[in-house]
Amino acid sequence: MPLIPALFRWAPVCLVLILLGGGCSTPFSAVSVNPLRSVPTPEWDPGEISRTSQSILDARGWGVAWQSRPSSAVAVLESEIVDPWVRRAVVEIALAAAIDRQRHGDRRQECDELYLCAAEHSADLKGDRSNAFGAFAERASRYAVSRLVDRHGQALWDFRAAVPPFLVGPRRRYQLFRETSTPPEAIPGHWRRVVPVDQFRVLDGPPILPISGLGAACVGKVETRRARLGSGDELQLTDGTWLPLTVTVEFGPEAPMRRVHFRVHDRKRTEVVDAGGRSRSLAGDFVTPFAVRTRELEQQNFLSLGLLGFLQGDRFSEETGLYPLETPSTDKIPVVFVHGLMSEPNTWRFLHAALLADPEIRQKYQFWAFQYPSSTPVQWSSTRLRQSLALWHERMDPEGTHTNLNRMVLVGHSMGGLLSRMQIVRGGGSLYRHYFTRPIDELRVGEARRQMLRDMFFFEPNPRVSRVVFICVPHRGSPMATDWPGRAARYFARLPITALELTADLVTFNRDALTARGRISPGSSIDSLRPDSDVIRMLEELPMEPRVQVASIIGCQDGCSDPAHSTDGVVPYWSSHLEGVPETVIPSDHSGQNHPQCAEQVRKLLLDHLQFPRVSP
User: Fold this and answer.
1) Quick one: 304-425+463-479+520-609 is in which CATH superfamily?
2) Nearest partner of 365 among 344, 336, 322, judged by Cα
3) Domain ranges of the chain
4) Which pLDDT score is estimated for 501?
5) Which residues, 6 or more positions from 4, have their beta carbon under 8 angstroms from its beta carbon?
6) What CA–CA distance (Å, rounded) separates 265 from 260?
7) Enclosing H/E stretch for 554
8) Positive or negative, the Cα torsion across 404, 425, 523, 571?
9) pTM over 0.70
10) Alpha carbon distance 135, 354 (integer Å)
11) pLDDT over threshold 50, residue 11
12) Could you identify which of 280, 349, 439, 592 might form a hypothetical disulfide with 275, taking C-beta atoms 3.0 to 4.6 angstroms apart as the criterion?
């Protein structure tokens, strides 16, 4: 397509996205970096030879000769390894030489052996009771393990690939083994990729430092059958999901052939491991996986998935459903993210990463996302959410015996908040009679469509939802939906074929059963967001279930000097405010889910939620 016509074609769409989306995304992403390129810090860095280590080399006549024969130098020093300073010198020499050889192309696998040697002696230094070398040993071990993960690739985590039987180090052979702390039934597939986090630099992410501890923090890409809840397959992670992992290396007793165990840990499931007879916290990075996922999506699509879902709702309708964002568990409380207009699950990356920084939240909660084409009317999408939640319960807890699964929290942003609100209200005959004059069983439609209508009009508050958090939600609509941006967006919206076919059946074969309101086309999600829309009026009439804890987080773009007359740029305060609902006003635009104060408030609400145990419904 010629460049100029393409720009003219997409310019209105991009303008509408800016105006209606209100900046519903963040540049939070990742760029690749070269971990072999040293970035000097005040502390010791891999590849650096300290003065003490150089003195040890000089005293033994190695000077700079170790650079050409590092394995020989290490072998000589290993005979004096009882001195921890000599052991530290071995680690520094092994790493410096391995890095140099990897930079210049290692033809004899020498740097693999040197990295293993560095990891081995780092592990022994970490066990030193004086703890004088703890920080050094942690950093050296993390770097050595990361490079081994780089170099051995699939052999260390893909059980379909053959692992090298052994490697020959300066003084001994190493026999390699691989294991995983994640049960095979939790991730029925393989890791497509496992990459150390030091290969990336995060841009504009939440200010959360990695967790120090045992092992090397990595990101892993899941390889499974493409599946979602409701697809007919077992509940599992979606193919291509990136997860925070930690790779650890454990060495067996010293011997001419020393056993080396590589273990891959799902960091969301495992906090501590037993190492050397004591409990150790695992290293972890809960920010980089989200940044890497964003980077991947940016490379795959010129337009975001959220915008494509709005422009091509018919194409993305089959993707509608609940998606686990981590390994599913029956012991953790589900938090379900529901995105808004022109958005998609990756919109939650900032908030999700910030919440995972809290260890109690990691241990007590699991996170899911509801994905849907945001062009569809609110009532249609909320019905699909209700169906997905019901199917989720049927698959994970058919007997209703897992108490934590019945303490679900919904977190809805913008239009997603309206979908969430629809899960805690009651439908029924009065709602149905707004649109139809004959009983539902007398409508001339197929059974599948009749069931969809039942789900859409006759429903109860979900008994498993016990808390809802609204973020920048237009409870009374948005004036922007009636202005020219809304009218332009309405033109570009594409509804799913199933929604169009149901509407056609009703208008064509059941016109005599429709009220005047029912004969009006349901329109798109933009129509649902008009302040005078049927959806907005309906929600005003349907009270929220009183047993459900509800809270609002409201954006205030102009400094919040007068919140009552403020706006987040898309939704005015008068629309976000609900009488009697506790609310927090934050200095944010419409992308409140990307603001640190929003993350902190959601964190507090989740911790508060733990204080209210709930029995099975």
Assistant:
1) Alpha/Beta hydrolase fold, catalytic domain (3.40.50.1820)
2) 336
3) 51-288, 304-425+463-479+520-609
4) 64
5) none
6) 16
7) strand 549-555
8) negative
9) yes
10) 26
11) no
12) 280
